[in-house]
Amino acid sequence: MEPIPKSGLFYSNKLTLFILQAYEDVMGKNGLNAILNLAGLNQLVDNFPPDNLERGFDFAGISAIHLAIEEMVGPRGGRGLALRAGKVTFNDFMKNFGALAGLNDLEFKDLPLEARLRISLLAASTIFSEMTDQIVNISETEGEYLWSTTACPICWGRNDLDKPVCYLTVGFLQSMLTTVSGGMEFKVNESNCRAMGKEVCEIVIQKQPIPAAN
Questions:
Q1: SS3 assignment, position 126
Q2: pLDDT tier at 170, thresholds 50, 70, 90
Q3: Span 39-76, pLDDT tens digits
Q4: What is the pLDDT of residues 178-211, one digit of tens each?
Q5: For all residues of the chain together, what is the average pLDDT?
Q6: Which of 5, 18, 60, 67 is spaced 20 to 30 A from 108 at the CA atom?
Q7: Residues 36 and 77 sit within 8 Å (Cβ to Cβ)
């Protein structure tokens, strides 16, 4: 595969570690090693980044991992793996940053649903913006929340696709919203993606949960 150009923008080692561990969980160690080799990241085989907050991993590496997954299993298979990995990534995020974000507080759990959704999105966006060079902005309309970023590590260096590819983030957000809502599911979809030549990656989150099946 063609190499992804270096961005000069960086993810923290800890958050990168979450992503690698999540893909190892859903693909197995051998599967992840094959992806790392295809992505030109063989230095990470049995040598994950240290568990610290240093911004030490270029966005290009994260993008290369996702491109390699698509090339190995196809876009549809890559989508499924990324959604699953995103949910696993949130589990690690919650264990490490849930208390910092206030998501474990009893007072938070007693808030109305819409307040819990808004606070969790703002807290997660703040953590990403402070621990990486990925600046996330949260806005909302009457019925939707919008998660937007102008520099996205998942699709860095790609701009000629006709469909969005940031499914890791979609899976992360789906898992977060289900957790903070007490088990409800929400429609989450990426409406704009820099891989499609757009200025921002924008993920739309419906404020109302998906009705439970009878």
A1: helix
A2: very high
A3: 999 999 999 999 999 999 999 999 999 999 999 999 99
A4: 999 999 999 999 999 999 999 999 999 999 999 8
A5: 93
A6: 18
A7: no
Q: At 23, list the tokens.
A: 């893909």
The dihedral of CA 63, 65, 67, 69: what is its sign? negative
> Which residue has 């876009």 as its token pair?
75
pTM for the whole structure? 0.94
Q: How far, in Å, CA of 170 to CA of 192, rounded? A: 12
> Could you tell me the two tokens for 186?
């929400």
Q: CA torsion, points 65, 26, 201, 103, in degrees to nearest 10?
A: -130
Apex 95 CA angle, 93 and 97, nearest 5 = 60
Domains of the chain, by residue range, sit at: 10-206
- Count other C-beta atoms under 10 Å from residue 26's C-beta: 17
CATH class label, 10-206: alpha beta
